[in-house]
Design brief:
The complex is a heterodimer of chains A (353) and B (294). Chain A has 13 helices and ten strands. By secondary structure, chain A is of the alpha/beta class. In chain B, helix 1 packs antiparallel against helix 2, helix 2 crosses helix 4 and helix 4 crosses helix 5. The chains are: A alpha/beta (353), B alpha/beta (294). Chain B: InterPro entries: eIF2B_alpha/beta/delta, elF-2B_alpha_N, IF-2B-related, IF_2B-like_C, NagB/RpiA_transferase-like.
């Protein structure tokens, strides 16, 4: 029967995606950028909306929330998955409110104003059925996908405002967003780039190759030399894995040291991060150690490896005080403004899936 | 009527008691016009402040006045307006009685197993947060400052011991000494000002400066009705009627001889503020106040 086939097809796809997520984290699968991860998640959520059986917005939100929980559990360090789930949940809430005819503003955030003027304890349970809700939600998700497609270009378009001629820019490791940003500026300006190689995976080397292919003068330095070179640097431009709710970052290991060196020399620290990396989490002390083995990094110590514990955290926390500016696809913002952007993207009840 | 309400229930925050009193007053008020009602209410608030000059009463009073103005804009007819006001007032009281639990639910996840927490003086909200964390089977130890001149810290320590939480009382002067052992600092607030800073028992500012110097997170837990429309730039800007107890203000001639009971902590020293409206960075506080008052 076609109905059952669609269901099994959907569950198969979800299982395949979850398996991919789990593999992607252990380094053996294809290493994917978070942009692709976000796009794949959104495609899957659109498919769930189209194919799963639901009669009211509440049901759909439950289904998506459950799938979202499974996806974040499969790979906790990949926060873009959870962010996309929350965006879609907010889209559903908005479409529901619009169908009901009530203005979007009043339903959304808690505020002192709401506490004082609300008529009755509003129990919003999303049980009403609307005929066009499915179509509206799918259209809104398509808009979200268009936005996702355009993020890197939107960020790169702002490059000329921030990079001036004959400047020395420092960056760390490899970020697709920063690469596009610098390449866009290189079309009209001449500047130098210093790339910190970011051991042990030395992704900085790939970054340097990519940049020099378009004619940017690039220098690769060891991580230990970051402080020494910082006095010659005009700006530090880096990417990040996640932007946290307080304006801090969860970025690749070594970023905190770069931020401190930049603060010491009063060098501005600019973060290029698309909006889908913004996560409602706040800094916790749990970081996700890379589960691979590191014997290849330390060939000399092979004999004593059994007696040695090797820890290699993948991520670093950078507090918001060290950051000067966030450049995202919707423009430049100060770290203290991140809470506001977050309240526009996600509903407070969805913060905890 | 007024004073008995205020001193009645030690568990109820003074702002809530103030609002309850004002609501009672509203029910019994005989005025014919909204303006008359507002004038009577303003007078009552002033009398309440004379009885208990804390920031919380002032913020509760202003919130209530704002509530009256908002409602009267919607219903120009006085008797209908009054009915709506009383209804909403009861609802508001019900909601804010839940706010302490909401704050506790948000905050206790920030307390990790094995954490050492430093707190200042006695705060019912902090107590609730620590209670929730203990109920969540987390193990942590607490240091409480003694908080002179009323030794409120000792009462806090007793309450914590009743919850089987290991607690140590430290001298106010020992804050710098103990700071290296501590993982995080959690304090309550008597008022949260527009800049995102807080007004709290004297000694809080010191605690905040110390924790900043040691890079320890400084968390504030406060319910949303404590948001107050003040913007102090330094300690002197805080109005005198908040700094001293009501009896002191009436009795003493020269306030320069008196010790203030509260101080102001600027937002640059605060990491996060936990309220029933969510986890806010200090810059988000003014946003909330704008949404309410403008």
């Amino acid at each position: 029967m076609p109905g059952a086939d669609k269901e099994t097809d959907l569950t198969e796809r979800i299982e395949a995606f979850l398996a991919d997520l789990k593999r992607g984290g252990s380094g053996t699968g294809p290493l994917r950028g978070s942009g692709e991860m976000a796009r794949e998640t959104t495609y899957l959520l659109r498919r769930i909306t189209a194919q799963a059986r639901w009669s009211s917005a509440g049901d759909l939100m439950e289904i998506i929330r459950n799938e979202g929980r499974r996806m974040t559990a499969a790979q906790p360090s990949e926060t873009t998955v959870g962010n996309m789930v929350r965006r879609v949940l907010k889209i559903i809430r908005e479409e529901y409110a619009r169908s009901r005819g009530s203005s979007e503003e009043t339903e959304q955030q808690e505020s002192l104003h709401k506490l004082l003027t609300a008529g009755e304890l509003s129990e919003e349970n999303f049980r009403q059925h609307f005929v066009h809700l499915k179509a509206n939600v799918i259209e809104a998700i398509n808009e979200l996908l268009t936005e996702l497609d355009g993020t890197t270009d939107n960020i790169a378009m702002q490059a000329l405002e921030h990079i001036h001629s004959n400047e020395v820019i420092m960056t760390v490791g490899r970020s697709r967003t920063v690469e596009a940003f610098l390449k866009d500026a290189a079309r009209k300006r001449k500047f130098h780039v210093i790339v910190a190689e970011c051991a042990p995976f030395c992704q900085g080397h790939e970054m340097a190759t990519g940049l020099s292919k378009v004619g940017i003068e690039t220098t690769v330095i060891a991580d230990a030399a970051i402080f020494a070179v910082m006095s010659r640097v005009n700006k530090v431009i880096i990417g990040t894995q996640t932007v946290l709710a307080n304006g801090g970052l969860r970025a690749v290991n070594g970023t905190h040291s770069v931020a401190l060196a930049a603060r010491h020399h009063s060098t501005p620290l600019i973060i290029c991060a698309p909006m889908f990396k913004l996560s409602p989490q706040v800094f916790t002390t749990i970081f996700y150690p890379f589960p691979g083995s590191f014997s290849y990094c330390l060939p000399v110590l092979r004999e004593i490896l059994s007696k040695v514990n090797v820890h290699c955290p993948v991520f670093d926390y950078v507090p918001p005080e060290l950051i000067t500016l966030f450049i995202s696809n919707i423009g430049g913002n100060a770290p203290s403004y991140i809470y506001r952007l977050m309240s526009e993207l996600y509903h407070p009840e969805d913060h905890k899936l | 009527l007024d004073e008995t309400q205020v001193r009645q229930d030690p568990e109820v925050p003074s702002a809530v008691a103030a609002i309850r009193t004002l609501l009672e007053f509203l029910k019994r008020d005989q005025s014919e016009t909204i303006l008359g009602l507002r004038e009577n209410l303003t007078q009552t608030i002033r009398r309440l402040e004379e009885a208990d000059s804390s920031v919380a009463v002032s913020s509760g009073g202003e919130l209530f006045l704002r509530f009256i103005s908002l409602t009267s804009l919607e219903h120009p007819d006085l008797s209908q307006c009054k009915k709506v006001m009383v209804e909403r007032g009861e609802l508001f009281l019900k909601k804010i009685s839940l706010s302490r639990s909401k704050v506790a639910k948000l905050c206790h996840t920030f307390i990790k197993d094995g954490a050492k927490i430093l707190t200042h003086s006695s705060s019912r909200v902090v107590l609730k947060v620590l209670e929730s964390a203990a109920a969540d089977k987390k193990r942590f130890t607490v240091y409480v400052t003694e908080s002179q001149p009323d030794s409120a810290g000792r009462q806090m320590a007793d309450k914590l011991q009743n919850l089987n939480i290991p607690v140590t009382v430290v001298l106010d002067a020992a804050v710098g000494y103990i700071m290296e052992k501590v993982d995080l600092v959690i304090v309550g607030a008597e008022g949260v000002v527009e800049s995102g800073g807080i007004i709290n028992k004297i000694g809080t500012y010191q605690l905040a400066v110390c924790s900043k110097a040691h890079n320890k997170p400084f968390y504030v837990v406060a319910e949303s009705f404590k948001f107050v429309r003040l913007y102090p730039l330094n300690q002197q800007d805080v109005p005198e009627r908040f700094k001293y107890k009501a009896d002191t203000l009436k009795a003493v001639e020269d306030l320069a001889e008196e010790h203030p009971m509260i101080d102001y902590t600027p937002p640059s020293l605060i990491t996060l503020i936990f309220t029933d409206l969510g986890v806010l960075t200090p810059s988000a506080v003014s946003d909330e106040l704008i949404k309410l008052y403008l």
